[in-house]
């Protein structure tokens, strides 16, 4: 017999710990949506669900022993946000609006997957240890928390102070956030020593 409250608390703790950095990314995307019109808010929400869903699906598949993911090579996904950030810096318009680094649902999903590639390392042992009923509770909690993350980021992205800050330095800040996220993924994944050896 599962304890749904304990399962929900465990799922919430793991989700929060592995997705705290998503609040920053989502906030930047919502500010860009307000100022540049891209990505659209529904692209951000749907892309976040699609990205988190892909990460969880990959973790469940790996946990079931159906696929082996070469550990450090997932760090190459860090190249996606780096590329998006560099593209935004190079193609920056003359105005001071923050650049639309990501303009579509699939772009948001790609950034979510790249930013969460390290989540798989946490999710795999967890999902391996869960029975199906507890796993279902975890999936429901994750779904609710994705909505909460998007709501918090949308609120932050509409806060006048945040909007002013991003408006003043967004043309440099937004690409820098994406480049920093990509660099962090590359460095912490352990893929760089393998590429350099």
Give a topology summary.
Elements: H1 4-36, H2 41-63, H3 79-90, H4 105-115, H5 119-129, H6 132-158, H7 160-189, H8 191-196
Overview of this structure, please?
- With 197 residues, the protein is mostly helical.
- It has one domain (4-191).
- The protein is 78% helix and 0% strand.
- It contains 8 helices and no strands.
- It has helices spanning 4-36, 41-63, 79-90, 105-115, 119-129, 132-158, 160-189, 191-196.
- The radius of gyration is 17 Å and the shape is globular.
- The model has no long low-confidence stretch (mean pLDDT 81).
- InterPro entries: Cd-R_transporter.
- Pfam families: Cad (PF03596).
Question: Which features would summarize this protein structure in a list?
Answer:
mainly alpha; Cadmium resistance transporter; transmembrane; membrane; Cd-R_transporter
Structural class: mainly alpha
Count of the separate structural domains: 1
Biggest sheet, in brief? none
Helical run tally:
8
Low-confidence stretches are: none
Which word captures the global form?
Answer: globular
- Along the chain, the helix and strand elements come as HHHHHHHH
Overall pLDDT:
81
Tell me the β content.
under 5%
Tally of extended strands?
Answer: 0
Radius of gyration: 17 Å
Helix content: over 70%
Distance between the termini: 50 Å
Protein name: Cadmium resistance transporter
Transmembrane segments: 6-32, 44-67, 73-90, 97-116, 136-157, 169-192
Keywords: Membrane, Transmembrane, Transmembrane helix
């Amino acid at each position: 017999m599962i304890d749904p409250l304990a399962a929900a608390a465990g799922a919430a703790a793991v989700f929060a710990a592995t997705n705290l950095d998503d609040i920053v990314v989502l906030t930047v995307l919502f500010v860009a949506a307000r100022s540049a019109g891209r990505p659209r808010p529904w692209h951000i929400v749907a892309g976040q669900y699609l990205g988190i869903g892909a990460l969880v699906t990959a973790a469940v598949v790996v946990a079931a022993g159906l696929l082996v993911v070469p550990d450090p090579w997932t760090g190459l996904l860090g190249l996606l946000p780096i590329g998006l950030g560099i593209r935004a810096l190079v193609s920056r318009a003359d105005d001071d609006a923050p650049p639309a680094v990501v303009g579509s649902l699939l772009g948001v999903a790609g950034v979510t997957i790249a930013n969460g590639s390290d989540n798989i390392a946490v999710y795999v042992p967890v999902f391996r240890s869960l029975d199906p009923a507890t796993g279902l509770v975890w999936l429901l909690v994750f779904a609710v928390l994705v909505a909460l993350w998007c709501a918090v980021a949308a609120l932050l992205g509409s806060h006048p102070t945040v909007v002013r800050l991003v408006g003043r330095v967004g043309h440099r800040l937004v690409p820098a956030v994406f480049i920093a996220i990509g660099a962090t993924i590359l460095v912490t994944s352990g893929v760089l020593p393998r590429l350099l050896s």
